[in-house]
Amino acid sequence: MRGTLLRYRVMATIVGVLLVVLILVGVPLANFDGTEMWGFIPSTPAWVTPGSGAQEVGEVITHQLGVAHGWLYMIFLVTAFLLARKALWEPGFTVLVLACGTVPLLSFWAEHKATARVKKEYAAELAAPRGAPVA
């Protein structure tokens, strides 16, 4: 259980950080092209011009991190699913954990809840030395 939980936590953290950078930094910068952003931000800030360095950085972040996040999210889904199977989670909790990985910042809450649940339900197994039988 220890290794499965560790792999899940590492992937959840990596995917969560990449998603925050992608959505809260890359996407806004990439949209600094002089047009309205998302239909509720009236225009690009005056200090940024279309084709500026800030917009180019945003484009690089969205393209490079977007692809990396997509591939790493698939690995996250597998590790989360394997943890769910090993920890015998019910389908509802499993789907919640998997879905929260798609929402910036909420993914960290889901990782915290999942980790706390595993640590509570498998405390004896996690506390036992590696290779020792669990009573």
How would you describe the overall organization of this protein?
This protein is an all-alpha fold. Helices cover 70% and strands 0% of the residues. The mean pLDDT is 82.
Please describe the structure with a list of short key phrases separated by commas or semicolons.
5 helices; mainly alpha; 135 residues; single chain
Query: What is the element string, with H for helices and E for strands?
Result: HHHHH
Helix content: over 70%
Strand content: under 5%
- Name the structural class: mainly alpha
Rounded Rg? 19 Å
Number of helices: 5
Got a strand count? 0
Uncertain runs are: none
What characterizes the major β-sheet?
A: none
Q: What is the general shape? A: elongated
Ends distance: 15 Å
Could you say how many structural domains there are in total?
1
| Multimeric organization | single chain
Average pLDDT score: 82
